[in-house]
Amino acid sequence: MRKMIYKLVAAIVLSIPFAAAGQSFTIRLKNTLLTERRDELVVLSKRFLDNKAGSVIKGNFSMIDAKGVELPYQLDDLDGDSKWDEAALLISFKPAEVITLKIIIGKAPKNYITKRAHVRQRRKGNNNGFGQLLNRDSVPAGQPNTDFSKQQFSPFLTEGPAWENDKVGFRIYMDVRNTKDIWGKTTNAMILDTVGVIPGSNYHHLDAWGMDILAVGKSLGAGSLALIVPFNGKDTLLRLGGTAMGPVIYEKVADGPLRAIFKMHYPRWQALRGLSPISVTEEISISGGQYFYQSKVSIKNTPSGAALAVGLVNLKALPLQHLYGSNARILYTYGRQSENNNGLVMAIGVAGAK
């Protein structure tokens, strides 16, 4: 059994002096780049904080910077055991800046966080309204896409799960297309609980909150998945979609206020006849202040020689540009490629790529 894992990672170096068990300890965060980094996501695991505290942290704690300002954070349960696993916070760094945080155990944090990240999945009810936010949802193999010439609403609000922050939003069609799309936002507010709810509203036209800015067609849209597989002496692109994709499961992991995380599970993708089904899980996250989402993909039972492919729509036939870093590679296009005829950059960044 082969397993491939791909992820995008932010580089923050942690250096911590030894801290005995007590009421407080410090953490030093260093920006290793010579550029400013605004609203950088910093994630501290429960195990990491327990080790630095010298004992298991129970109950409340607060994080204070060197100026005495308390920093908001959120606690995320990643494995569903009702216990938090990670503390996530957003910090802005000057070039090469070192920031010291003081962790005070037993001090309750202030409850003043503005929501800056959100994920949601809602199903249509019997009265053409949409129900509550779902923690888990699924569709069978072959779930058809909505024909809006025959029905007013999709089975799901905006045709599937949507996620956003205070800058941008995205969605994925939870049907045989399985394609990702982009919401261009003109507001910092979280708006995707209401977009598409009102009959007759058209989110393909500019509204006060923004609009759907991407035409995806039959492409891989804004970062949808596929495999490149050698077949009969040629590389063949097998997109994760269609009836062969099998059932699809949505699972919410964390819903803000600073970052949102969810997973899309594809447990029985019959990519090639005669071979065992492939199991794919994509974990998608977004945090406040950024113009992108992060994706971590785990694949089991991949065919020999297969490679993960991530796509971008290019209906305007724009030239593909490249950026190279010491441990990352970025492919991007830029031009008037939004549905509102605005300039739009679309990019794929892969950590560890050469």
Give the tags.
about 45% strand; 2 domains; single chain; mainly beta; about 350 residues; disordered N terminus; Immunoglobulin-like; 1 helix
Describe this structure in words.
By secondary structure, this protein is mostly beta strands. It folds into two domains: 103 residues, Sandwich (Immunoglobulin-like), CATH 2.60.40; 197 residues, no CATH class. The protein is 2% helix and 44% strand. It is built from one helix and 24 strands. A six-stranded antiparallel β-sheet has the order 1-20-19-18-17-10, with no helix packed on it. Strands 9-11-12-13-14 form a five-stranded antiparallel β-sheet, with no helix packed on it. The protein has a four-stranded antiparallel β-sheet with strand order 2-3-8-5, with no helix packed on it. Strand 23 and strand 24 form a beta hairpin. The relative contact order is 0.15.
Q: Could you give a short description of this structure?
A:
The protein is mostly beta strands and 354 residues long. Helix content is 2%, strand content 44%. It has two domains: 3-105, Golgi alpha-mannosidase II (Immunoglobulin-like); 117-313, no CATH class.
